[in-house]
Amino acid sequence: MDTINFSYVLEVAKEKNVSRAARNLYISQPALSQALKRIDKTYGITIFDKDFNLTKKGEIFVKYAVEIEKNINYLKRELDTDELNIGISQFYGKYYLNQILLSISRLNPEVKVNIKEDTSKYLEDDIVKGDLDIGFMPTPILNNLKHKTLFSEKLVLAMPKNFKEKDLKNKDHNLLTMHKGSKLRDLSDEFIDKNNIKVKDIIEATNLDTINSLIISKNAIALLPDIIERLDGINYMKTDLSREFDIVYKNSNKLNMDKFVEIFLEISKKVTI
Fold first, then answer.
1. Are 126 and 248 in contact (CB under 8 A)?
2. What is the C-alpha separation between 123 and 141, in angstroms, rounded?
3. Any idea where the HTH lysR-type domain is (predicted)?
4. DSSP strand E in the chain: where?
5. pTM score, two decimals?
6. Most exposed residue of 14, 56, 74, 159, measured as fewest CB within 10 angstroms of its CB?
7. Mind listing the pLDDT tens digit for each residue in 93-151?
8. Matching CATH number, 81-150+245-270, of 3.40.50.360, 3.40.190.10, 3.30.70.3180, 3.90.226.10
9. Span 4-78 CATH architecture
10. Residues whose CB is less than 8 angstroms from the CB of residue 110 and which lie 6 or more positions away in sequence, other chains included
Protein backbone atom coordinates (compact mmCIF):
# COMPACT_ATOMS: atom_id res chain seq x y z
CA MET A 1 0.00 0.00 0.00
CA ASP A 2 1.32 3.47 -0.95
CA THR A 3 2.10 5.36 2.26
CA ILE A 4 0.45 8.50 0.83
CA ASN A 5 -2.86 6.75 1.46
CA PHE A 6 -2.33 7.09 5.19
CA SER A 7 -2.28 10.85 4.68
CA TYR A 8 -5.51 10.62 2.68
CA VAL A 9 -7.33 8.79 5.47
CA LEU A 10 -6.00 11.08 8.19
CA GLU A 11 -7.01 14.23 6.31
CA VAL A 12 -10.56 12.95 5.72
CA ALA A 13 -10.81 11.90 9.36
CA LYS A 14 -9.76 15.41 10.39
CA GLU A 15 -12.07 17.29 8.01
CA LYS A 16 -15.00 14.82 7.94
CA ASN A 17 -15.51 16.09 4.40
CA VAL A 18 -14.01 14.72 1.18
CA SER A 19 -14.12 18.02 -0.72
CA ARG A 20 -12.20 19.94 1.93
CA ALA A 21 -9.77 17.07 2.44
CA ALA A 22 -9.10 16.85 -1.30
CA ARG A 23 -8.48 20.60 -1.46
CA ASN A 24 -6.02 20.38 1.44
CA LEU A 25 -4.25 17.46 -0.22
CA TYR A 26 -4.13 19.20 -3.63
CA ILE A 27 -5.88 16.34 -5.41
CA SER A 28 -9.31 16.07 -7.03
CA GLN A 29 -12.32 14.87 -5.06
CA PRO A 30 -12.94 11.87 -7.37
CA ALA A 31 -9.31 10.79 -7.00
CA LEU A 32 -9.59 10.95 -3.20
CA SER A 33 -12.89 9.04 -3.20
CA GLN A 34 -11.35 6.31 -5.36
CA ALA A 35 -8.33 6.12 -3.05
CA LEU A 36 -10.60 5.59 -0.03
CA LYS A 37 -12.41 2.78 -1.83
CA ARG A 38 -9.10 1.09 -2.69
CA ILE A 39 -8.01 1.28 0.96
CA ASP A 40 -11.28 -0.27 2.13
CA LYS A 41 -10.90 -3.05 -0.44
CA THR A 42 -7.24 -3.68 0.41
CA TYR A 43 -7.99 -4.21 4.10
CA GLY A 44 -11.50 -5.63 3.74
CA ILE A 45 -12.98 -2.96 6.01
CA THR A 46 -15.06 0.21 5.88
CA ILE A 47 -13.13 3.11 7.39
CA PHE A 48 -15.81 5.81 7.17
CA ASP A 49 -19.60 5.72 7.39
CA LYS A 50 -21.76 7.77 5.00
CA ASP A 51 -21.23 10.94 7.09
CA PHE A 52 -17.46 10.38 7.12
CA ASN A 53 -17.33 9.47 10.78
CA LEU A 54 -14.86 6.72 11.62
CA THR A 55 -16.20 3.22 12.09
CA LYS A 56 -14.77 1.10 14.90
CA LYS A 57 -12.31 -0.51 12.49
CA GLY A 58 -11.66 2.91 11.03
CA GLU A 59 -10.61 4.15 14.47
CA ILE A 60 -8.13 1.27 14.72
CA PHE A 61 -6.80 2.06 11.24
CA VAL A 62 -6.34 5.75 12.07
CA LYS A 63 -4.61 4.93 15.36
CA TYR A 64 -1.88 3.03 13.51
CA ALA A 65 -1.86 5.40 10.51
CA VAL A 66 -0.91 8.26 12.85
CA GLU A 67 2.06 6.29 14.19
CA ILE A 68 3.12 5.13 10.72
CA GLU A 69 3.06 8.67 9.31
CA LYS A 70 4.98 9.95 12.34
CA ASN A 71 7.67 7.30 11.85
CA ILE A 72 7.87 8.05 8.14
CA ASN A 73 8.54 11.70 9.00
CA TYR A 74 11.22 10.63 11.49
CA LEU A 75 12.81 8.48 8.79
CA LYS A 76 12.86 11.36 6.32
CA ARG A 77 14.53 13.62 8.88
CA GLU A 78 17.12 10.99 9.77
CA LEU A 79 17.96 10.45 6.09
CA ASP A 80 18.17 14.17 5.40
CA THR A 81 21.75 14.60 6.55
CA ASP A 82 22.21 17.83 4.57
CA GLU A 83 20.07 19.82 7.02
CA LEU A 84 20.34 20.28 10.77
CA ASN A 85 17.49 21.83 12.74
CA ILE A 86 18.76 23.42 15.95
CA GLY A 87 17.05 25.37 18.71
CA ILE A 88 18.51 27.71 21.28
CA SER A 89 16.94 29.30 24.33
CA GLN A 90 15.89 32.90 23.87
CA PHE A 91 18.46 35.40 25.15
CA TYR A 92 21.41 33.00 24.72
CA GLY A 93 21.52 33.18 20.93
CA LYS A 94 23.29 36.55 20.81
CA TYR A 95 26.01 35.26 23.14
CA TYR A 96 26.65 31.72 21.91
CA LEU A 97 25.07 31.17 18.49
CA ASN A 98 28.19 32.26 16.64
CA GLN A 99 30.37 29.68 18.43
CA ILE A 100 27.70 27.01 17.93
CA LEU A 101 27.47 27.62 14.18
CA LEU A 102 31.25 27.70 13.81
CA SER A 103 31.51 24.39 15.68
CA ILE A 104 28.87 22.76 13.49
CA SER A 105 30.57 24.09 10.36
CA ARG A 106 33.91 22.69 11.53
CA LEU A 107 32.32 19.25 11.88
CA ASN A 108 30.28 19.39 8.66
CA PRO A 109 31.00 22.31 6.31
CA GLU A 110 28.25 21.28 3.86
CA VAL A 111 25.34 21.09 6.31
CA LYS A 112 22.53 23.66 6.12
CA VAL A 113 21.53 24.82 9.61
CA ASN A 114 17.98 25.95 10.42
CA ILE A 115 17.66 27.91 13.68
CA LYS A 116 14.75 28.30 16.08
CA GLU A 117 14.81 30.52 19.18
CA ASP A 118 12.25 29.74 21.87
CA THR A 119 11.88 28.97 25.56
CA SER A 120 13.75 25.82 26.50
CA LYS A 121 10.59 23.96 27.52
CA TYR A 122 9.19 24.25 23.99
CA LEU A 123 12.55 23.44 22.43
CA GLU A 124 12.66 20.21 24.44
CA ASP A 125 9.17 19.32 23.20
CA ASP A 126 10.31 19.93 19.62
CA ILE A 127 13.29 17.61 20.09
CA VAL A 128 11.02 14.90 21.51
CA LYS A 129 8.68 15.26 18.50
CA GLY A 130 11.60 15.20 16.07
CA ASP A 131 11.05 18.75 14.79
CA LEU A 132 14.48 19.74 16.09
CA ASP A 133 17.66 17.67 15.95
CA ILE A 134 19.53 19.51 18.70
CA GLY A 135 18.83 22.13 21.35
CA PHE A 136 21.08 24.43 23.37
CA MET A 137 19.65 25.42 26.75
CA PRO A 138 20.22 25.75 30.49
CA THR A 139 19.48 22.89 32.87
CA PRO A 140 17.47 21.25 34.28
CA ILE A 141 16.44 19.16 31.28
CA LEU A 142 12.78 18.35 31.85
CA ASN A 143 12.30 15.56 29.30
CA ASN A 144 14.12 12.24 29.16
CA LEU A 145 16.61 13.51 26.58
CA LYS A 146 20.33 12.95 26.19
CA HIS A 147 22.49 15.95 27.00
CA LYS A 148 26.11 17.02 27.39
CA THR A 149 27.35 20.03 29.33
CA LEU A 150 29.01 22.85 27.38
CA PHE A 151 29.75 25.10 30.36
CA SER A 152 28.52 26.15 33.80
CA GLU A 153 27.11 29.65 34.28
CA LYS A 154 26.88 31.69 37.46
CA LEU A 155 23.75 33.61 38.43
CA VAL A 156 23.75 37.13 39.85
CA LEU A 157 21.21 39.14 41.82
CA ALA A 158 20.68 42.47 40.06
CA MET A 159 19.33 45.54 41.87
CA PRO A 160 19.48 49.35 41.65
CA LYS A 161 22.75 50.69 43.09
CA ASN A 162 20.92 52.59 45.83
CA PHE A 163 19.71 49.26 47.28
CA LYS A 164 21.59 47.95 50.27
CA GLU A 165 22.20 44.21 50.60
CA LYS A 166 21.12 44.25 54.26
CA ASP A 167 17.72 45.68 53.24
CA LEU A 168 16.85 42.60 51.16
CA LYS A 169 15.50 40.85 54.26
CA ASN A 170 14.14 43.94 55.99
CA LYS A 171 12.17 45.74 53.28
CA ASP A 172 9.64 44.60 50.71
CA HIS A 173 10.93 44.62 47.13
CA ASN A 174 9.52 44.28 43.64
CA LEU A 175 10.75 41.15 41.89
CA LEU A 176 11.32 41.04 38.13
CA THR A 177 11.30 37.49 36.83
CA MET A 178 10.24 35.11 34.06
CA HIS A 179 6.79 33.57 33.75
CA LYS A 180 5.75 30.64 35.95
CA GLY A 181 7.04 27.28 34.70
CA SER A 182 10.25 28.70 33.26
CA LYS A 183 13.52 27.30 34.60
CA LEU A 184 14.87 30.63 35.80
CA ARG A 185 11.56 31.43 37.53
CA ASP A 186 11.86 28.22 39.55
CA LEU A 187 15.43 29.09 40.53
CA SER A 188 14.41 32.64 41.38
CA ASP A 189 11.54 31.48 43.61
CA GLU A 190 13.85 29.04 45.41
CA PHE A 191 16.51 31.73 45.89
CA ILE A 192 14.01 34.22 47.32
CA ASP A 193 12.62 31.65 49.76
CA LYS A 194 16.01 30.32 50.83
CA ASN A 195 17.39 33.81 51.54
CA ASN A 196 14.22 35.12 53.18
CA ILE A 197 14.05 38.06 50.77
CA LYS A 198 10.87 40.07 51.18
CA VAL A 199 8.86 40.49 47.98
CA LYS A 200 6.02 42.96 47.52
CA ASP A 201 5.04 42.63 43.83
CA ILE A 202 6.12 40.14 41.16
CA ILE A 203 6.52 41.57 37.67
CA GLU A 204 6.79 38.96 34.91
CA ALA A 205 8.51 39.30 31.53
CA THR A 206 9.39 36.88 28.76
CA ASN A 207 12.91 38.08 27.97
CA LEU A 208 15.94 38.40 30.25
CA ASP A 209 17.23 41.52 28.51
CA THR A 210 13.83 43.14 29.09
CA ILE A 211 14.01 42.23 32.79
CA ASN A 212 17.50 43.71 33.00
CA SER A 213 16.37 46.96 31.36
CA LEU A 214 13.42 47.40 33.77
CA ILE A 215 15.28 47.00 37.05
CA ILE A 216 15.74 50.73 37.65
CA SER A 217 12.33 51.94 36.41
CA LYS A 218 10.50 49.23 38.38
CA ASN A 219 12.79 49.69 41.40
CA ALA A 220 13.13 45.90 41.47
CA ILE A 221 15.52 43.01 42.01
CA ALA A 222 16.09 40.14 39.57
CA LEU A 223 18.04 36.88 39.38
CA LEU A 224 19.92 36.82 36.07
CA PRO A 225 22.69 34.89 34.27
CA ASP A 226 26.13 36.35 34.95
CA ILE A 227 26.66 36.87 31.22
CA ILE A 228 23.94 39.55 31.13
CA GLU A 229 24.95 43.00 29.85
CA ARG A 230 25.99 45.34 32.68
CA LEU A 231 23.84 48.46 32.69
CA ASP A 232 24.61 51.75 34.44
CA GLY A 233 22.94 52.26 37.79
CA ILE A 234 22.60 48.54 38.53
CA ASN A 235 24.60 46.45 40.97
CA TYR A 236 25.12 42.79 39.95
CA MET A 237 25.76 40.87 43.15
CA LYS A 238 27.36 37.42 42.99
CA THR A 239 25.36 34.48 44.37
CA ASP A 240 26.23 30.88 45.12
CA LEU A 241 23.86 29.73 42.38
CA SER A 242 25.00 28.20 39.11
CA ARG A 243 23.55 25.96 36.43
CA GLU A 244 24.83 24.05 33.44
CA PHE A 245 24.22 24.98 29.81
CA ASP A 246 23.83 21.84 27.72
CA ILE A 247 23.56 20.52 24.21
CA VAL A 248 20.37 18.43 24.22
CA TYR A 249 19.35 15.76 21.71
CA LYS A 250 17.35 12.61 21.18
CA ASN A 251 19.60 10.94 18.61
CA SER A 252 23.19 11.70 17.68
CA ASN A 253 23.01 10.48 14.06
CA LYS A 254 23.65 13.90 12.51
CA LEU A 255 26.44 15.18 14.74
CA ASN A 256 29.26 13.68 16.77
CA MET A 257 28.32 15.22 20.14
CA ASP A 258 31.63 14.56 21.90
CA LYS A 259 33.53 16.14 19.03
CA PHE A 260 31.11 19.07 18.93
CA VAL A 261 31.69 19.83 22.64
CA GLU A 262 35.45 19.64 22.10
CA ILE A 263 35.34 22.08 19.17
CA PHE A 264 32.88 24.42 20.92
CA LEU A 265 35.12 24.72 23.96
CA GLU A 266 38.16 25.34 21.74
CA ILE A 267 36.37 28.11 19.80
CA SER A 268 34.87 29.67 22.93
CA LYS A 269 38.32 30.15 24.47
CA LYS A 270 39.22 32.36 21.50
CA VAL A 271 36.03 34.45 21.70
CA THR A 272 35.55 37.26 24.17
CA ILE A 273 31.89 37.34 25.16
1. no
2. 11
3. 1-55
4. 83-89, 112-118, 134-138, 146-160, 173-178, 199-205, 220-225, 234-249
5. 0.67
6. 56
7. 999 999 999 999 999 888 889 999 998 888 999 999 888 999 999 999 988 899 999 99
8. 3.40.190.10
9. Orthogonal Bundle (1.10)
10. 82
